[in-house]
Design brief:
- This protein is mainly beta.
- Among the domains are: about 200 residues, TonB-dependent receptor, plug domain (Ferric Hydroxamate Uptake Protein, Chain A, domain 1); about 280 residues, no CATH class; about 140 residues, no CATH class.
- The protein is about 10% helix and about 40% strand.
- The chain is built from 15 helices and 53 strands.
- The chain has a 22-stranded antiparallel beta barrel.
- A hairpin with a 5-residue loop joins strand 24 and strand 25.
- Helix 10 packs parallel to helix 12.
- It is globular and about 105 Å long.
- The two termini are about 40 Å apart.
- The N terminus is likely disordered.
- InterPro entries: Beta-barrel_TonB_sf, Plug_dom, Plug_dom_sf, TonB-dep_rcpt-like.
- It is a multi-pass membrane protein.
- Keywords: Cell outer membrane, Ion transport, Iron, Iron transport, Membrane, Receptor, Signal, Transmembrane, Transmembrane beta strand, Transport.
- It is found in: Cell outer membrane.
- Its main location: membrane.
Length: about 1150
């Protein structure tokens, strides 16, 4: 028997199929004797190809899976298709695999699958270090691991895969309680989705109501005190006609980091109604809520050690600040690194304005003095602007905390470093943010389908609809991101001259309290038609000869859909209101400092421990209060402020007021038509799949005006909408060639080879503009796959080997704030500063260089709505609008997936993957912008970048009525020139990004493999009822940094030809279970103990290494955990 060739059902078989529908056996499949097969691989047991009756062609069900093996999929053509007939890279994960490994969500699953990575606690990479914010910079962007953990994943080193639910796009987190199977489609696939991530798709298939009465209850406990309960009940209400199924989830999950948690409660219901023998109606719905304060997998940034270590103490002493913190700090010491000067981290004070409350970790006031408020930022690293600005009288504080970062003269330097271990703060077991943050979510989903299949199975159609609504409320953490920096308060005196009672206490700056709060709302609506027609030359054309066998049978599908997605995001801030604000408002650049101005943000310093003078004295406590509770709207606090009128300090009540700080609203509408032809030729030895797809996309984006009299507070009643339409079409194909049955290869071996090509695009990026406001095409993805399958040892072993090349072209990539530095700061803002210098009398309005400022290209100025305010001297703008930049990523590699069943009760699953993912063509638009504007900028490189203070003017012997000696200023203060600003904030960071083109993406591991096995003891064994299993997960060393090198011009650059690597990682899992009947044989009871990361090492895992080879950022390793699950089926 040739087990590799699928026989199409004959007419008699079709009639038999229909009779089984009428007899009530549909859609339940009998389990075959073969046990096993890995969900984590595509190796298929092709012996199942004989006698496969295609029941409903529009769904797949758990009843069709065999152990770990899923032989059929919808992900190939949107119709039920044998996986062995598809050339795409598809991995199907069955419910049994999820149960054995204890995987309840994508975070727990993706550590076992090939070429996939997932972030968060227990994950295998950090996430967020290669994204639209730039390369390997990443602390803020990685907050995705906390706010959207299932979206913080990466496939083939490219990007996060899109998530779908029953092949409808979705952002609802996946949970095993209502999922039959999960499929990972790696690479672009325009047959499924013309739009979406080129990294691939992760589709979860929800459970179906079946015609059988069965129920399941499970309880799970773990070592951290978590309790998870699920219920799954299925009832046949009318025999073979109507069935309903209800599933419940109550998951109270506790992280090892106390007090982090995630509570997830859901209810899911579904029904199947066979209206007639040929017409079926299916519908399901889910309602859920998540309340969480998720753990941070990353170590807090160490702003203490460099200040207290031997170098810091010897060079600077413990009291590095002058007694009066209001005077200039002119001599921040410097040391030498390879001929380049650099400030030592922790040596100079972090120039930080004091503008809020002093609090202890429990929320009580720290010290006797009221919070002290200043509207003044120090304007340069050495605080030369701390003197009074021309004509402005104010009292400000130049510093607050010890520095945490190096800022090299080249701009490519050392990075902020995490606590190297758990000795100063045990961030393995404690969450530094404490109860401060929250991530809440409410969602509901409704999905249904009408299905018609003709009696002979030759044609059919399905009309499906889907609606999803999701609301999120997010507070990322005390700093609005994940980079919790613990520093020392190195100030001896408060700015009012009183002693600082909190001197040398470790603290964290709440620079964004409620501004970290984000409300998101997303609604999706979709309807689709999926129709097919089948033609068999033997059956339908009567060609019962060799030609009919050659021409074979064909399935032509037509797919049409309309999908709408609306997404809104509101960000909130807390602003001080009170008399002291108005009295302190004049800061030289913005005399009004209106409501919503960032200098009015409510802030606080939270002191986490007592005074220390050496590292061994440090004791840190987590924050013990909530942002929502403490910084409530309307709370009154007393702040000490400088009263310009009385020339004295006053204690004045101030009220914290919540206001809208940012708003966005966007919508996407996609209309799709597609044709898919699958042909089985040469007696089913050659299977081809051809697909054509056309997508018409319309993107709508809102632009909001500002509330009058405020600093950029969005006015939701003043909205204009930009509508941009685009379209694209794609062609994809695959071919599978199977070995002829006549070959009679040894050991029952058969094999096949396959090839495929596909592509897709990202519709949400339609309408983008580059830095010169030139239209950008949407990002596109393409995938080429080639490989082979082998089944041998009489189908006990199945092997699939796949070679791939996947590309992502022109994805959005802003490089942090580089676009803003070029367009808004270097061009717009510095013209404003020049005008202020003219008004102060030290710059000449007739200076010809004046025309070199602010020459923003007209198209760019129009896009950002660049304009002068009412005074005619200050530039204002809306935002960068649709302006962005791009980069591209190319991945190539190999994926191996193997299943071996040495015995019917023993299954072994293995996968191995190799990848090399390289970034290219970064920031092309910005490079063009800089090339265009640089000749003008160079004319003003020696001019001041900020308002020049009285002390500097005095030092340079400036006299009223004269103009500033520009050459003398540039020689004395090179770091504070426009040229210095350009070097630090634009040229060098841009060059650092461009230099990394051609290098591998951050945290790439060339090789990784996973092995999963489970053995069930036979019924005649003394250990009958028991099963034992385990897993091994191995990862190659990770590329986490690059050293310096010098180019032919002697400039320091990133050496992408060499990399710094983090350690290899090995993780081991084990489980043991026992199963028996209880309650007089009416209930199947199973208890299983899983231990994940049995031999875990507690040492933190390096995430980044700086240019000097020093480990910078660290994350938690995969820590040992155990959980005990009891399952009752009846």
């Amino acid at each position: 028997m040739n087990n590799n060739i699928k026989k199409e059902p004959s007419v008699n078989q079709v009639e038999r199929f229909l009779s089984t529908r009428r007899s009530g056996l549909f859609p339940i499949l009998s389990a075959v004797a073969v046990v096993g097969g890995p969900a984590v691989l595509n190796g298929q047991d092709d012996s199942a190809d004989d006698e496969v009756f295609e029941l409903s062609p529009f769904i797949v069900s758990a009843e069709e899976d065999q152990g770990y093996v899923a032989n059929v999929t919808l992900a190939g053509t949107r119709l039920k298709t044998n996986l062995s007939d598809v050339g795409a890279a598809i991995t199907s994960i069955t419910g049994e695999f999820l149960e054995d490994t204890g995987s309840t969500n994508l975070e727990e699953l993706l550590i076992y699958t090939g070429n996939t990575e997932t972030a968060g606690v227990g994950g295998n990479f950090s996430s967020g270090f290669e994204d639209s914010d730039g390369a390997a910079r990443g602390f803020q962007s990685g907050a995705n691991a906390i706010t959207n953990p299932q979206g913080a994943q990466r496939v083939r080193g490219l990007a996060a895969a899109d998530q779908t639910r029953n092949l409808f796009q979705s952002n609802i987190p996946v949970d095993q309680y209502n999922v039959d199977r999960i499929e990972i489609v790696r690479g672009a696939n325009s047959i499924l989705f013309g739009q979406g991530s080129p990294a691939g798709i992760i589709n979860s298939s929800t459970k179906q109501a079946i015609f059988e009465d069965k129920n399941e209850i499970s309880l799970r406990f773990d070592g951290n005190g978590s309790v998870r309960a699920t219920l799954d009940g299925n009832m046949q209400l009318i025999e073979n006609k109507l069935a309903v199924r209800v599933a419940l989830l109550n998951d109270n999950f506790k992280y090892r980091q106390d007090p982090a948690f995630e509570d997830d409660r859901r209810i899911f219901a579904t029904t199947t109604w066979n209206v007639t023998d040929n017409l079926t109606f299916r519908v399901n719905g889910e309602v859920g809520e998540i309340r969480a304060n998720r753990a941070n997998p990353f170590g807090p940034i160490d702003g203490i050690s460099y200040y207290l270590n031997e170098v810091g103490l010897e060079t600077y002493g413990i009291n590095i600040l002058p007694d009066d913190p209001r005077i200039d700090i002119d001599a921040i010491p410097e040391i030498d690194f390879g001929g380049k000067t650099a400030q030592v981290a922790g040596a100079g004070p972090r120039i930080f304005v004091q503008y809020g409350l002093n609090l202890n970790a429990d929320g009580s006031l720290a010290g006797d003095s009221p919070g002290q408020y200043s509207t003044r930022w120090a304007l340069s690293p050495n605080a030369i602007q701390n003197g009074n600005a021309a004509g402005i009288d104010r009292k400000g504080r130049t510093n607050r905390f010890s520095r945490t970062d190096y800022e090299m003269a080249t701009g490519i330097g050392l990075q902020p470093q995490s606590f190297a271990d758990y000795s100063i703060f045990d961030w393995k077991n404690n969450f530094l943010a404490g109860d401060f943050a929250f991530q809440n979510e409410d969602f509901e989903a409704f999905n249904g389908a009408f299905e018609f299949v003709s009696e002979d199975g030759r044609f059919g159609a399905e009309v499906a609809f889907d609606w999803q609504h999701q609301e999120r409320e997010i507070q990322k953490g005390p700093t609005g991101s994940r980079d919790y920096v613990v520093r020392l308060d190195v100030t001896r005196d408060n700015f009012d001259g009183s002693p600082n009672a909190n001197a040398l206490r470790p603290a964290i700056a709440l620079t964004q309290t409620m501004s970290g709060v984000i409300d998101q709302e997303r609604e999706r609506n979709a309807v689709q038609l999926n129709a097919f027609a089948r033609f068999d030359f033997v059956r339908d054309a009567g060609m019962e000869n060799w030609l009919g066998s050659v021409l074979g049978n064909h399935t032509l599908s037509f797919y049409a859909s309309r999908a709408e997605s609306d997404f809104s995001r509101l960000g909130y801030d807390e602003t001080w209101e009170g008399e002291g604000i108005e009295r302190n408002a004049n800061n030289g650049l913005n005399p009004n400092m209106p409501f919503g101005h960032p200098h009015r943000d409510v802030g606080a310093a939270v002191y986490l421990g007592p005074t220390v003078t050496s590292l061994d004295q440090i004791s840190i406590s987590p924050i013990g209060f909530s942002a929502r509770d403490f910084f409530a709207d309307g709370q009154v606090s007393t702040l000490r402020v400088w009263d310009k009128a009385s020339q004295d300090f006053r204690d004045i009540p101030h009220t914290s007021t919540t206001h809208l700080a940012s708003a966005s609203d966007s919508g996407t509408e996609i209309e799709t038509t597609a044709f898919i032809l699958q042909s089985k030729l040469l007696e089913n030895h050659v299977i081809t799949t051809l697909g054509y797809r056309s997508d018409d996309v319309t993107n709508t984006t809102a632009r909001y005006g500002s509330v009058e009299g405020t600093s950029g507070v969005p006015n939701l009643q003043d909205a204009t909408y930009d509508e941009i339409a685009g379209s694209d079409d794609y062609f994809s194909w695959s071919i599978v060639a199977k070995s002829p049955s006549k070959w009679k290869l040894p050991l029952g071996t058969n094999f096949s080879v396959f090839m495929s090509e596909s592509e897709n695009f990202d519709p949400a990026a339609t309408g983008r503009l580059d830095a010169l406001a030139r239209p950008l095409a949407p990002p596109t993805g393409s995938t080429e796959e080639i490989g082979f399958r082998i089944n041998t040892f009489e189908d006990k072993l199945a092997l699939k080997v796949n070679f791939f090349e996947t590309s992502l072209k022109d994805q959005s990539f802003t490089g942090g704030n580089l676009l803003g530095q070029a367009i808004l700061q270097t061009d717009a803002r510095f013209r404003e500063r020049f005008q202020i210098g003219v008004d102060a009398g030290y710059l000449d309005v007739n200076d010809p260089v004046f025309d070199s400022f602010g020459t923003v290209p007209a198209a760019v100025a129009e896009e950002i709505n660049l304009r002068l305010d009412e005074s005619g001297s200050i530039y204002i703008w809306d935002n960068l609008g649709n302006i962005t930049d791009t980069t591209s990523t190319d991945a190539e590699g190999m994926e191996i997936e193997l299943m071996y069943n040495p015995l019917p009760n023993w299954r072994i699953a293995f996968n191995a993957s190799r990848q090399e993912t390289v970034r290219t063509e970064s920031m092309k638009g910005l490079r063009d912008y800089v090339a265009l504007r640089l000749p003008d900028w160079q004319n003003v490189f020696d001019y001041p970048q900020f308002l020049v203070g009285d002390s500097v003017l005095e030092e340079l012997a400036w006299e009223p009525g004269e103009f500033l000696d520009i050459d003398a200023f540039a020689a004395a203060y090179p770091d504070n020139t426009i040229g210095g600003h350009y070097d630090r904030n634009l040229r060098v960071p841009l060059q650092a990004i461009v230099d990394q083109d051609g290098g591998v993406v951050t945290e790439q591991r060339e090789w990784r493999f996973n092995l999963v096995t489970n053995y069930t003891f036979k019924k005649d064994s003394a250990l009958k009822g028991f099963n034992v299993g385990g897993a091994v997960r191995w990862q190659d060393e990770a590329a986490i940094g690059n050293p310096w090198a010098f180019n032919e011009d002697g400039q320091r650059i990133v050496d992408v030809s060499n990399s710094y690597y983090g350690p290899k990682e090995e993780n081991f899992d084990a489980w043991v279970g026992y199963k028996r009947k209880v309650f007089d044989g009416k209930v199947d009871w199973k208890v299983q103990l899983n231990i994940r990361n049995v031999l875990a090492d507690d040492a933190p895992v390096p995430v980044t290494i700086d240019a000097f080879g020093n480990v910078a950022q660290l994350r938690l390793p995969a820590l040992q955990s155990w959980y005990l699950t009891n399952t009752f089926k009846f």
